[in-house]
């Protein structure tokens, strides 16, 4: 007798897609097999639906404590569930104060324990002002350390240049934790911005201020440091196939490095930014159709390892400045990752096993989130029931993030409808609504 049996769904595992039943006991997958014998206190009929491992989004900014007016843990985690996610890793900024030491770790842990509907891990910062706190952050249980190689937009979270990044990577290597880098060259982007920012600056100038070569310069520098220090490196939001190629080449040479990209770089181009404006401002910026296609090729051939949302929203008033350089940069997309990938992946031949690898198993493995990311016996019973072929327009009422009107995906027609989401064997999302109290737990890296 199980707690729960989910019958008849098309279950997506790394091996393929197969009609399987899930037997759940104590929140854990006990058996995953065809025509599971036995009974359960609760049986769920998943026929006609796909069963996907819950999404593991290791790149979100939910901004609590301190900036819940931009996004909060309750709204952010609700939107994650609505998009088929069950675990997130929160970035150390843009919460205020940012997560830079033991006390700020404790504050965010307390806030997330109260408000998160999904399980969560926490990134610590790697900045010039907190190098001496990396060991205590490791002890507290951070997933790893996040560094900005160019300005972060947050005064309390300064960029880690040269020696600081080198020292931080050395410390991270000794602690056995990865470093994630926002890789854009500060020297180049600052110089270009100084020349292009001014009265009458348009989105064209913003795009010109952050070219692909700014990303390539910074990736090269980070790879040199990772090679030298032996640090595990994760390059976040890679926006170009060339960037992915540099990373893949270093990996082939023995550097322990992985690459992430985001759905917005795979869904939109710079022409969309010129048309839509602020909702699509991000850094690195959107690229040409050709660069986007090269990035897709890297996603399909394995040079890109993970896809995270980089959900980095703000209140709508921060998206209205007439000068694009003054607009907050960040895309509000945490709920749309799965739909964007199902929709744009269809025409490019992205299979469901590969999709769930990018969204679930690869990030869980890379960051040692034990029990997460795969539907095999022994793992947490975290999964989404998805009608993969259902297509619908994304409407504002469906979005559960703090400011649905800031989503650049609004009004688009997307493939895939998330019907239910289960976290550790309990139904936490159904019929467009989050169910029950916040019961998210901290996941420390194994
Ligand atoms: N501070 C912050 O979240 N910045 C993010 N926004 C964005 O578009 N790229 C980033 O790194
Ligand atoms: Zn970034
Ligand atoms: Zn980010």
UniProtKB/TrEMBL annotation:
One GO biological-process annotation of the entry reads:
purine nucleobase catabolic process
**Group of enzyme by EC:** hydrolase
Query: Which pathway?
Result: Nitrogen metabolism; (S)-allantoin degradation; allantoate from (S)-allantoin: step 1/1
GO MF assignments: allantoinase activity; cobalt ion binding; zinc ion binding
Q: Which InterPro entries match?
A: Allantoinase, Allantoinase_bact, Amidohydro-rel, DHOase/Allantoinase_Hydrolase, Dihydroorotase_CS, Metal-dep_hydrolase_composite, Metal_Hydrolase
Q: Name one GO cellular component term.
A: cytoplasm
Metal-binding: present as a keyword of the record?
yes
The residues the record assigns to binding Zn(2+) 2 are 146, 182, 237
Task: Describe the processing and modification events after translation.
Answer: Carboxylation allows a single lysine to coordinate two zinc ions.
What is this enzyme's EC? 3.5.2.5
From what superkingdom does this record's organism come?
Bacteria
Cite the cofactor comment. Binds 2 Zn(2+) ions per subunit.
Q: Does the keyword Zinc apply?
A: yes
Obligatory cofactor(s): Zn(2+)
- Can you give the residue ranges of the Amidohydrolase-related domain? 51-428
Catalysed reaction equations from the record: (S)-allantoin + H2O = allantoate + H(+)
Q: Which residues carry this modification: N6-carboxylysine?
A: 146
User: What keywords sit in the KW lines?
Assistant: Hydrolase, Metal-binding, Purine metabolism, Zinc
List ligand-binding residues for Zn(2+) 1: 59, 61, 146, 310
Q: Which family does it belong to?
A: Belongs to the metallo-dependent hydrolases superfamily. Allantoinase family.
Q: What does this protein do?
A: Catalyzes the conversion of allantoin (5-ureidohydantoin) to allantoic acid by hydrolytic cleavage of the five-member hydantoin ring.
HAMAP family, A to Z: Hydantoinase
PANTHER family from the entry? ALLANTOINASE
Per UniProt, subunit arrangement is: Homotetramer.
Protein name per the record = Allantoinase
Q: What is the lineage of its organism?
A: Bacteria, Thermotogati, Deinococcota, Deinococci, Deinococcales
